[in-house]
Every structure is written in C-alpha cells, then in structure tokens.
Amino acid sequence: MKDKKSILGKITASREASLMIVLIILCFVIQMRNSSFLTPSSIGEMLKNNAVIMVMTLGMLNVLLLGGIDISIASTLALSGMSVGMLIKRGIVTNTFLCFMIAILIGAVCGAIVGLTISKGRVLPIIATMGFMYIFRGAAYMVSSDEWAGADALGSFKDFALNSVLGINNIIWIVIVCYAIFFIVMKWTKVGRMVYAVGSNREATMISGIRADRVEFFVYLIMGILSGLAGAMAVTVYASAQPNMMYAKEMDVIAACVIGGVSTTGGRGSVGGALIGALIIAIIAKALPLVGIDAIAQNTVKGLIILVVIVLNVVTQRTMDKNVLKGREM
Amino acid sequence: MSEYILELQGITKIFPGVKALDNVHFQLKRGEVHALMGENGAGKSTFIKVITGVHKPEFGKMFLEGKEVKFKTPKDAQESGIAAVYQHPTSYPHLSVAENIFKGHEPMKGPMIDWKKMNRDADALLQQLNADFKSVAEMGTLSVAQQQMVEIAKALSTNARIIILDEPTASLTKRESEELYKIVDKLKESGVSVIFISHRFEDMYRLASRVTVFRDSQYIGTYNVDEITNNDLIKAMVGREIKDLYPKPEVEIGPELLRVEGLSRTGYFKDISFNVRAGEIVGFTGLVGAGRTEVMESICGITKADAGKVFLEGKELKAKSPQDASKNGIILLPEDRQKQGLIMDWSLGRNVTLPVIGKYAKYGFNNEEAEREVSKELLESVDTKAVSIFDKVNTLSGGNQQKVVVAKALAQDIKVVIMDEPTKGVDVGAKAEIYQIMGELAKQGYAVIMVSSEMPEILGMSDRIIVMCNGKMTGELLCHEASQEGILELAMEKHNGGNNS
After folding, report:
1. What is the least distance, in Å, from the CA of A218 to any CA of chain B?
2. Contact between chains at B366 and A211 (C-beta distance less than 8 A)
3. Which of A122, A134, B106, B257 has its CA 20 to 30 A from that of A150?
4. Total CB pairs under 8 A between chain A and B
C-alpha cells in the first residue's frame, strides 16, 4: 500500500486534476472553433463578467460543505446592489469604498438572519432560504420603488469596474483576493477545519466539543457577506442596479460548486475545485455564443455539460473510494 | 429428500480488513429450532446475512432441500422461503399493520390493492399468533414485542419455511419473551424451521433442540442442547479462561471525582445517584433500553436532565453542552463510533486532534506539526495498528477505530472517561487490548465509567457495578459480590413487577 501511484492513478484519484483536464479540453475545443477565445482581453472580460458568480461560489462552497444550501443569495445580492444603486442615485453616498462597505453590511445582516434561522431556529436550509429568497427580492423591489439606477445615475461608482491596478481589472483583483483568503482559511486555519468537521459528521464534532451551531451561523453569515459584496460588484460591472438583477443566478453558483466536486451532502470539496467549477461555468457562458450555438439552445447545452461533468465527478469519487478500500489492511 | 432443509458448507466471507466467516458449517433439520450462539463479533450476523442473500460468500456452498442455491439478492432468499426477523424491527411506522405485513406482495385486485383481502388475511395471521391487536393499527403505536409479532406474521405471509430470529428477546420483557416462546413453539408445530440467535441461555434451553457455536468467525461445533452443560458451552463460545481477557490492574482508589445526585429525565430515567472515584472503574449495566446511555448523555450535556445535580470534584457542574462537559474533563466515548465518535473519511491524526485544534492553533492558523506529534504519540500510546497517522479512519478495523477514539479522548484534559459499549463490534483480540487500555486509564487516576451489556466484561473489569432497569437504578454491587445471575435479576426485577409501559 505504500507503492507509489502511477501518474494515471494520481490523476484519476484527484478530483481537481480530472476537472482540470475537463477545463483544458473545453478551452482547447473552443479555441479550435474560434481563435479569439484565448486572448488576454477576452479572458479578462470573461472573468469580469463572471466575477459575481465566482465570489459567491466561495460562500456556497462553505454552505454545501456543511450539507446545507442557500438559494436566497441572488436576492441578497439584489437587495444590497439595489440599495447601493439608490443611495448613489439619490446622491446620499458617493464614495466607492463606502458603497462597498454598505453593500457588505447589508449582506452581513441578511446572512446573519438566514444563519440564525437555520442554526438556532433549526429550520431546514432549503426551506429557510426559500423564504428569504422571496423576502430579500421583495425588499429589493421596495428599495427600488419602481425605479432603477442606470449608468448615468451611478456616477463614478461604475468606473471602478473599468479601472485596473497593475494591468488587472479591479473586479478581478477582488476575485483573486477572495480566493486567496478562502484558500488559506479552508486549508490552514481552525475555522476551515471546523467547517469540514461539522459537514463530515455533525454529531461527532459536537461530542468532540465544537459548537456546530456557531460554525453553521458563521458560514451563512459569510455567505451573506459575499452576496452583499457581489451586489456592489454587479452594480459596477453592469453599470446598472435593477431589482431583478441576477435573477435565479443562485443556481449557477450551486452548479459551479457541484461541478467543482463539492458534495451536496457535506464534508467534501475544496476551494480549488470550486474555482475550477466556477471557471467552467464562466467558460460555458462565454464560449457557447463564440462557437455558434444559438441563444435558445444555450441553456440546454449548459445543462448537458453540467451533467457530463458531474457524471465524471461521480466516477472519480468511486475510483477514490475503491482505492481506499484496496488500501485496507488485510 | 435430504434430512436437512438447509445446509451450508465451508462458507468464507471476507470483508476488507477482516475475515468475517472462516470455513463455517451449518445444518438445519426440518422443523427444528436451532440456536446459534457466540460472542458479539463471532460472525453470527454475517452468517445470517449470507443465508438471507445480503452478503455473497467468497467460498462455500449452500443447499436448500438438498439442492445447491446461490442467492444474488435478499429477494432470492425470500422467494425460496427464507425470512429473517431482526432485533429492531425494520418497519414502516406510519403504515398500518396489514400494510407492513404485505409490503411488497400486497394482494391485488386488478391494478389496485385489495384492501379488504389484505386486512382479512393479516387478521388471520395475527390471530394465528394470538396477537392482541388488529391489522388496521398503526405500526408505530405498537410495542417492540408487538412489532416483532408483525415481522413474524410478515414472514408467514410469504410462506417462509425457514424463519431466522435475530436476538428476538433482547429488547423484550420476561413476559413478552414467554409470549414469543409460545409463538416459536407454534411455528415449530406447523413445520417451519427456526434459526434462533440469542445471548440468553434461558432462550436456548427453552426452545432449541440443537445449538451451533461460532467463535472468532469460525465454526466451533454443533451440540444437542440436552447433552451440553452450561460451562462447556461458555468454553466453546469464549474459548479461553476469562482471567486472560480481563487484565484488571491493582489500583489504589483515590478521592471522589464525579458524583451524581437524583438525576432525572422524564421518560428516560429517574432518580439516578452514584459516584465514581479516581482510579475506579464503575460498570453500568442493564438490558437494552434501560436508560444507561441516556444517563451518560445527560451527564455530558448532550441532553438536558429535568432534575438532579452533577458534581465534579465536589463542585456542581452544569453542563449545558458537550463542550461544557469536555472543557471540565468529562469525556464520552460514544457507543456508535462511526456516527458519534469519528469522522470516518478523515485521517487518524486529524480525528485525534479535532477536540483540541484550538489549543494548538496560533492566530487561528493550525499548527499541523504540533498536532501530528501529539496524535502520533497518543496513537502509539494506545497501540493503534495503522501504517501512518495519515491513514483514513475508515480503513481501520473496529478495534483500532476504538483506539483512535480513546486517543482522541486522551488529547484532552480528562478526569472522567465514560466508555459506552467500548467493545461493541470489536473482535476478541482487540477487546483484550481495549480492556488493557481501560485498566491503564484507571491506573493513571482517571475515573472510568463503562456502560456495557456484556456481562463478562462488566464482571471482569468493574470495581463496582450499577444495574439499571426501566430507567431506574435497581442495584449497586461490589465486584466480588456480583454474579451473572444476580445482575440479571436486578436488570429484570421491575419487569416482573408488571410496570412496563
């Protein structure tokens, strides 16, 4: 059992590696069909357009690691984005940094309410977040009071997504920083370990003296904060704030996680996997028009690709489990 | 026609890591009641699962009425007339008795279920078993004994010729057991062959004509019940002097560490008072469902007691959560290791340090090096057999998993260790090692509470024995004044009083 694994064995045994291959093949095929795909500006554009999904994927990773789910995130995003949009339109706040802080705060409040309902109220995550999905979306409409904030109303705030630092767009910097923080936290910190522990076996973790309910609250809080941040990001990227923004996009976020090998029953998944999953979602969204697939057929193709990747995931997982069994002492 | 309705030859079943059955034989005569005995982990359950088609053996043959059969699925076995009734009935609690009996083979009228016929047939079966409830009753409202009756009725409804009863009396009161004996007698009269698994000698003497003994996954022998003495049977089952198995060290008993006064939780236990001193091993025993585990869970703050106090080193401890208890040094080693004790797809090392990550982490960052050292040291101190601390726990055998649980407890600052069924599902060799560790813990001055249903280990390891029955303490015995019979009497005392709800 100490034998070194073959390279093929290693690849089939690591989910991230097999996903990486899917990603490369996907890029390769698209590049063959349309050579404008893999250019720096095209990639930058793609990342910027999917930054919102990518950031929220990190929060969803944590939620799914606990075996939960949060379908209220697109509504939280709309509420925070709409609030920021209206504040700017009315000229109450103009400072970009302050706008981001307000968005994050709104997200944090939403996340805390969701977290309390689930961790203290012991309401099923799917039910609780379904309720909040309607509530927060409705609140976004109330904030908008039948108006929306367009590009000219948004003033300097929309410039944030146009400017870059060190040649990299501000929005992409946010994504990079978020992923770096989460990579470190999930891999090397106590909090990260606790999330995995609660998700793997809540009962055993509680008996081990860890407050599972606090971990759960914390995870939904983080999910809310990221959704709030994503709200501000969406407003500046698309240069508009509308109450129906990113409607139903929580499914793309969940799909990114699932494609990235995050188990919906908890305990399994990584930041690396989530990143690849989010990238695959981004590429699908970007590439389908590029390779000439009709807009009407795009969702169908997207669904097919998701299913194929997930089947691949399951196969990889089974191989891994089998390897574990083979490794058992006899 | 063959003399035997069922015959198994040279059955070997290998699970990853263990040989669960090693060249096992078995012969069942037509219309006989055959007891199957052996210690926990001797392979009885696996053997039953081979007969019922749940497990496929690696080697060996199985003959039904002299013809070789190979069951691919439990359904094959069912269709061949083999039915099993398990200790914990596997029923649908929200469906009616009749639906439970005919689940999967409902009488049909065209595409629709023939409810009238189903209820009528179910009532007929129940009457045959002298049941005191009707087919329209909801399954969940029945007692365990009644649910078992439904399971037996279900077996009969499939025209089973061989019925396997897996520890049917384990959760029954004495009177309910008598009822069951009568049912088994009836089955025998009607020509059904019965395989009966039980830990109770009483059951065996009352019912069986022959008994087959397994030990350590091997076939030991088949004996006529009237020809074998109790002692010979125990020797066949255990296979060694009990002294070797229980290495209880001489320990000087220190001051009182834990005192429980009048602890009660409505519906589970009432008025529990006892104390445990440093270096002492206190055994908690009783029948399944007597409330032992529930008492321990309340002490550890997993559930809340309604009344009563817990004192740790003389100071009252109000544990509201397992965190409170473990912070103060009361550690529970849960009965269900896989569900409550360990994270199965984590490495050994990670499991050991899970309760103490906070202790080693600096600024929230885990100190993996320190964790590795600690877990390595602790795992070695309890002699865990694994290649490295990076191995996943689910690659280990039950005994080694238990050692990881112990190492995990040792990683914390402990005073009181509560071990709930510490040797459940562990083979005999590993059992002795766990007893060794338990002795070590006592020697190091910890107070040890062992909850166990296994009489030999209670008698072999405890300084004091507390017996519970129906949620109440019915006796407290010193080790040398305790006997198996004495304990059993206490464990069942109240049942005879007729107050079983």
Report:
1. 15
2. no
3. A134
4. 93
